[in-house]
TrEMBL record:
It comes from the Bacteria. This is Uncharacterized protein.
């Protein structure tokens, strides 16, 4: 929330910006909006939360409809501001064919309110209409020209005309807001919060265009801050992400994704629209959630954090499951198989449905995609099977994280749950665990990606070949380059339920298998033991390396520290 505050009004009144809070479903985006709204209410600052009824979720809403909800919220809070230009637009849009006598404004507003299914306290609509009428009397009949322009744009019925109508309506709303705000220097610029029940794309695009329109005419910047929520598909649509899902350093039309949270204040002073990822829960925060649920102490918190990877909703579900199991330290398998809060669906299935949000649950192709390391790798795998590349499989709601190299990757928990389904397929299946990973190994070989090939071969159970190739690399490569390859190889998923043998005859084999196990959430109870064995194996391997002894010492120290936690 500190980052959001820094962005919204970085230079005081008149410097408002827009923020998109993004993250996978259940990551805490809506909760962040509620916290921010509580702070605005406590500070008596003008704001509005756009949250439409759940059965209208994701239904397309025009900008004038969303701004009408804002107007109702401001009026309900006691901000008695007139919006004559904007309401004239609303009346014209509601009845564009009435070119002579205008429909009574209260009637038009009530019909709009009913269509949106939003409440309005008694007398609010009448008060809005009275203030609008006074404003029109003072400024002349502002609705006549607006009606002609609105009717002309509605008559075109094109995407560009609709975008231009959105811009016109927002310009008039902002002009009315300017008239209401002078002399109120202690007020922050009004803040509009848009939650997940609304697609904010049209409003964000219109806001950006209105800002550019004002800048081009030397007018003050809009005094309206926006905070919206969304998934990565929204960011890609706005130009905040590249087509492959990776972030760009500075992207189209002045939009930016800060690379580090400490960059947000300086970014907000120069960029009109900023995207901020919702922070995932830390180990300490997970521990508090677990204890609050009565689910035990540190041991349970470690298991929950290893599985949920900081995902807020999944953390709550797993903590409740642990409490229902008696509060002792449960294994990952026990937690994921336990009944969820609805007492019907197992926790693992309920969390999977939550993460996918109804996209492609149960899809065989999606399960196969989980074996891929990145969105690009999954696309290559799936397109070779003939599936259309514009499928929901490639939605950034699925590929909701950014990997170390900037590529889009699955959230670790989503990948874990899908890989469990892949592991449950019969071995004779053409798309079983070993077949899928063997196919990915072949694709990596075609790309010349040897580390990626070994990664997938290790997952497929081809341990002997992987050990042999890694042994060869130790004789050929520098110590640092060898460690880089091993780090890639050992992020390979371990098949659920597989044994992890303790190999004493080959230190390279021991390093590979123990490091792979240390990275696996199912093995969290034995993680310290695995890290200790990796450190022991690396000491033996370092003596055979040509160089890179400093890199080996750093790696050994890293595993020793993890073993001692």
């Amino acid at each position: 929330m500190a980052a959001v505050r820094a962005v919204l009004n970085p230079g005081g009144p008149g410097r408002a910006t827009a923020v998109v809070l993004f993250g996978p479903t259940g990551s805490g985006r809506s909760r962040a909006l509620r916290v921010l709204r509580g702070e605005l209410l406590a500070g008596r600052q003008p704001h509005a939360l756009i949250a439409l009824p759940r059965h209208t979720r994701r239904r397309g809403r025009s900008v004038h409809e969303l701004l009408f909800v804002v107007l109702l919220e401001l009026a309900a809070q006691g901000w008695k501001w007139g919006f004559p230009r904007f309401l004239a637009d609303c009346a014209a849009i509601a009845a564009p064919a009435r070119l002579s006598d205008e429909e009574p404004l209260p009637v038009a507003l009530e019909r709009l309110r009913e269509r949106l299914e939003v409440p309005a306290p008694d007398g609010v609509l009448a008060g809005i209409a009275r203030r609008a009428a006074r404003g029109r009397w003072r400024r002349g009949r502002v609705g006549v020209e607006a009606r002609d322009e609105v009717v002309a744009l509605l008559g075109l019925d094109t995407a560009q005309a609709r975008a231009d109508l959105d811009l016109l309506v927002l310009r008039h709303f902002l002009a009315d807001l300017d008239d209401a705000l002078p002399g109120r220097a202690r007020l922050l610029d009004p803040t509009v919060l848009v939650d997940d029940t609304v697609d904010p794309t049209a409003l964000l695009v219109a806001w950006r265009r209105a800002r550019e329109w004002r800048e081009g005419r030397g007018q003050p910047l809009p005094r309206l801050a926006l905070v919206t929520t969304g998934e990565r598909d929204l960011l890609r649509g706005l130009g905040l992400l590249a087509e492959d899902g990776g972030p760009g350093p500075r992207l189209a039309e002045g939009l930016v994704v800060p690379e580090r949270r400490r960059d947000v204040s300086s970014v907000a002073l120069t960029e009109p629209l900023t995207a901020l990822p919702v922070l995932e829960l830390t180990e300490r925060q997970v521990d508090r959630v677990v204890r609050a649920a009565g689910a035990g102490g540190r041991g349970t918190a470690e298991v929950v954090h290893a599985l949920a990877a900081g995902h807020a909703a999944a953390t709550r579900e797993l903590a409740l499951a642990a409490a229902l199991l008696g509060g002792g330290t449960a294994t990952p398998e026990e937690l994921l198989s336990a009944p969820s809060s609805d007492d019907v669906t197992p926790v693992g299935d309920r969390v999977l449905n939550l993460l996918l949000d109804g996209l492609v649950v149960g899809s065989d192709a999606l399960v196969a995609c989980a074996a891929a390391r990145t969105l690009e790798e999954a696309a290559t795998l799936i397109t070779t099977t003939g599936l259309h590349p514009r499928s929901d499989l490639f939605s950034l709601a699925v590929w909701s994280r950014t990997g170390p190299d900037g590529a889009a990757v699955m959230h670790p928990l989503l990948r874990l749950l899908l890989l469990r389904r892949l592991a449950s397929r019969p071995e004779a299946d053409t798309d079983d665990w070993c077949s899928v990973f063997a196919g990915l190994a072949k694709l990596a070989e075609r790309r010349g990606d040897e580390a990626g090939r070994l990664h997938h071969l290790l997952a497929a159970g081809e341990v002997e070949e992987v050990v042999w190739r890694v042994e060869e690399g130790l004789e050929r490569d520098s110590g640092e380059a060898w460690l880089d390859v091993v780090r890639v190889v050992t992020t390979s998923p371990l098949r659920p339920g597989a044994d992890v043998p303790v190999q004493r005859d080959s230190p390279v084999r021991s390093v590979l298998l123990q490091w792979q196990a240390a990275n696996d959430p199912h093995r969290v109870a034995h993680r310290r033991e695995h890290h200790s064995r990796v450190a022991t194996g690396l000491r033996e391997v370092a003596g055979r390396s040509r160089d890179g002894h400093l890199a080996f010492r750093r790696a050994i120290r890293e595993h020793e520290e993890k073993a001692d936690r």
